[in-house]
Structures are given as C-alpha cells and as structure tokens.
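Continued from yesterday's entry.
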Amino acid sequence: MDRFVDSNIFLRMAQDMEDEDHELEVKTYQHRRRRSLNERRYAGSIPGRVRIHRDHISGD
C-alpha cells in the first residue's frame, strides 16, 4: 500500500476516536446536568402542594 494512503487511514481513525471522545464527554455532561436538575435543592414545602392550615397554637 501507498504510505500516503496508510497515513490517511490512521488520521481518519484518530479523528473518529476524537469524535467519539467528544460525544462521550457531551453525553456525560448532559447526564450530570439532567441529574442535578432533578435533585431537590432545598427542604421544606413543595411547590404545587396545597397547604392545610391546622391551628396548632389553639391546640396547646
């Protein structure tokens, strides 16, 4: 085989590996971001829940 053709094959393989690495990095970032957005950020009342007022003071 021609040396130029051999070097092009290796260049294309290296480029494909870089593309795969970049794609993996992007997917990892997206997964971590999605997971962090789904985690609860605080404790306390939950938005959208109905608050039931119970007269705790008069119960004492």
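--- second protein ---
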Amino acid sequence: MNDRLSHPPATLPAPVTLRSPLRWLALGWADLRRNPAPGLIHGLLLAAFGWLLLWAARDQFWWLAGAFSGFLIVAPILATGLYHVSRACSRGHCVGMAEVLQLWRSGDGRLVRFGLLLGLAGTGWVLTSAGLITLWSPEPILKPVDFLRHVVLVRDIGLFEVWLLMGALLAAPVYASSVVALPMLVDTSVPVSMAVAESWRAVATHPGPMALWALVIAVLAGIGMLTALLGLIVLIPVIAHASWHAYCDLSQRLPDLQASAPTQT
C-alpha cells in the first residue's frame, strides 16, 4: 500500500558543486527518516551478508580483503530498490518492501544485465586481490593483523600501494558507469548503453564534486565496516537515498509530485 506523506518534499535540482555531496547526504538522511523500514531492511541484509563473509573467510584474510572491496562494487545494484523509495518520497508517497520487491520481480532485463556486469567486476577484483596478496606477501596472510603487519605497515613501497592502485583502477570506471546509470534505469526506460553514457557525461562534466562524492562513499563504507558492520545498517540506505538525489541534480530531473502511485519501470 502507498501511504500519502503529510508534507511531500519538493526538492528542485541544484547546481552541482563541491558542497553537493553534503546536500545529497542530508536529503538521503531525510528520505530514510520519512520511510525507514525499506532502508533499514536493506542495510540489515547487507550487513548480514558482510557477517557471513567474515565467518566464511575468517582464516583466509587474503580472500576477505578482496571480498569486502568487491562487495562495495556490487552493493549499488543490491540497493537499487531504495532509489524507488526515494522516487516515491518525491511524489509524496511512502512505500514498503512489497513495492520494492515488485521492482525486482518485474524482471527488468536492464537491471539484471547491469547487475551481472557488476558481479563480474567484483569477482574479478576478488581474484586479483587474492592473487596479489598471496603471491607477493613474504608471509602468510591469515588474519587482519597479518594484513596490517605484512602489507599495510611495511616500510618499503610495494604490495599495499599496488593493491590500492589496482583497486582504484577497477573501481573508477565502475563508479563512473553506475553512479547515474543505476538510478536512471530505475527512473526511466532508457537502454543500458544510454544510461552508462549519461553517467560518464555527468562525471566528466563535474569531476571535482564526483571525485569528492566517491571519496565520501568510500569513507562512510569504511566507517560502517570499522563498527563491526553495524554502521552499514544505517549508512547503506543513507548512501543509496543520497545517490538518488545526486542523480536528480546531475540529470536536472524535476521532482514528480503526482498524487498517483509511482509507476514501475
């Protein structure tokens, strides 16, 4: 059921500046407060998946390091339903998980294809990360303290810097391809190629704010992980809702204040 919000938010697109990421976060937090259930359920499920990763790779940290960084690559597609929630908020409606699940049950081939591509990118990074750490590290990396001691805190420039560089080289094109494309695929019926092209255009047009937004996302994700993943329960939905507002500003999307229920795309 769609419940009418008492005061529908009419957020007009704003010029994209270095202050925009803070604006997007504020709007994302406001969306979570208006309709908390879908976001917190997403956050809890993603945190639970992270706990499962921790348990599965508890004695194989070389897999764990790649798995968590690869998880960040795939996470945007897993939070796609929250773009639908933010879109509903812009129309003055409050939607539940039933409507979010309906989006996935619609079988939108564009989202499925994009998700598979992100999954392949994440898997490729997990394998690359594991290979780098196991082949290059002078000592076995079995626990987080081993990674800290033998990879991060070594004096010589080498493995850690290469690991970060390769991760950035993979993450940058994935970020540029998806930061606008995923919300656009939920919001419109454009093909994947057009959505990806628009995403790259937005990043190229606003390189400073988009680089800062990527850094903000990485820092918040890191904070969430450092809190034994508990912080992700709130931070994941805030980032997802904020990403919707980033898309609205970058694409100059006007708010939809129709009284009718949001349509599925």
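Strands lie at 3-4, 93-94. The first helix runs from residue 20 to 34. Will compare against the first tomorrow.
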